[in-house]
Backbone:
């Protein structure tokens, strides 16, 4: 088969130029042509133009949305791989109508401690003003703030799933009292993890550190709003490593800017990448990171190894990975 007839594959959003080194792509030689795309494409127009020649697309989490308006403009597209547990910005119905196979190639590949560790990096950085004091030291200033001692304080968890449970265990190791609330959490389920189940109002009122660990859905969107933030202690910290839209960003900005809330550590935002002119970027009492919760070398190696495996299965005519997405997408 001549090279011109081989299927063309685009590996999307390789911002860090690491996809090639994280897996053995040589197993695909002679079966397809692989291009690594290193910048974000604007959807739908720029993405439609750039991606039109490709037969397969390999996604890294949800970095490139795939709405119907884009899918319908990709005439050659036959196969997509998706990493992570969900792709909330992919229109699965539109792909299915087109006969495009969508393979969820890495449901089990993300190290389970990646996001809990990032959560605690932000908690500690916010509690001890690490980012701010780093800037001050570089500017020749010395000791400008007093930190928050975590021992003996209350850690509140908005959600006690896989990530929340690990965050809770670390909180207990710091000598913190751990409380939690979510719509379906029972006292018995919380107690298994050494956590006290409280009602929603008590969670916001009593927490010295409130960490968000809900899955984004229509029910959880905006669940942390002005009323909830108003319940929190003026010294309290809010940390979000889940999804930006769970927290009303405008309300959070107002609370931080007014001193109504002590501080925050944010790894996720309503719009990603976070615009440079966001008011969050002008606040000294917030630590900002670019959705690093899952971004470890171990995670990326797992993502890209499974991506190669999924491509190989599809190219060999097996119809994609057995771990295909069958169902629910989150808007």
Residues:
């Amino acid at each position: 088969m001549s090279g011109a007839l081989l299927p063309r594959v685009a590996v999307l959003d390789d911002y860090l130029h690491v996809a090639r080194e994280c897996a053995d792509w040589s197993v695909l030689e002679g079966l397809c042509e692989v291009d690594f795309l290193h910048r974000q494409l604007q959807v739908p127009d720029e993405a439609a133009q750039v991606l039109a020649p490709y037969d397969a697309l390999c996604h890294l989490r949800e970095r490139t949305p795939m709405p119907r308006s884009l899918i319908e403009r990709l005439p050659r597209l036959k196969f997509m791989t998706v990493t992570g547990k969900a792709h909330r910005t992919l229109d699965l119905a539109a792909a299915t109508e087109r006969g495009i196979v969508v393979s969820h190639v890495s449901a089990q590949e993300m190290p389970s401690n990646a996001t809990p560790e990032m959560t605690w990096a932000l908690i500690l950085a916010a509690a001890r003003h690490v980012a701010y004091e780093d800037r001050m030291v570089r500017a020749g200033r010395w000791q400008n703030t007093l930190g928050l001692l975590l021992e003996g304080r209350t850690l509140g968890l908005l959600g006690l799933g896989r990530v929340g449970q690990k965050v809770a265990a670390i909180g207990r190791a710091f000598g913190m009292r751990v409380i939690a609330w979510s719509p379906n959490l029972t006292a018995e389920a919380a107690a298994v993890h050494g956590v006290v189940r409280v009602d929603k109002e008590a969670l916001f009122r009593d927490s010295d550190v409130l960490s968000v660990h809900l899955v984004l859905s229509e029910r959880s969107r905006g669940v942390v709003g002005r009323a909830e933030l108003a319940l929190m202690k003026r010294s309290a910290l809010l940390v979000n490593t889940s999804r930006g839209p769970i927290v009303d960003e405008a309300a959070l900005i107002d609370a931080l800017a007014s001193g109504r809330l002590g501080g925050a550590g944010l790894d996720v935002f309503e719009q990603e990448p976070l615009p440079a002119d966001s008011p969050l970027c002008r606040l000294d009492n917030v630590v900002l990171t670019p959705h690093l919760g899952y971004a470890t070398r171990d995670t990326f190696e797992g993502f890209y190894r499974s991506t190669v495996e999924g491509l190989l299965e599809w190219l060999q005519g097996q119809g994609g990975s057995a771990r295909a997405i069958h169902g629910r997408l989150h808007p």
User: Anything to note?
Assistant: Residues 319-331 have pLDDT under 50 and may be disordered.
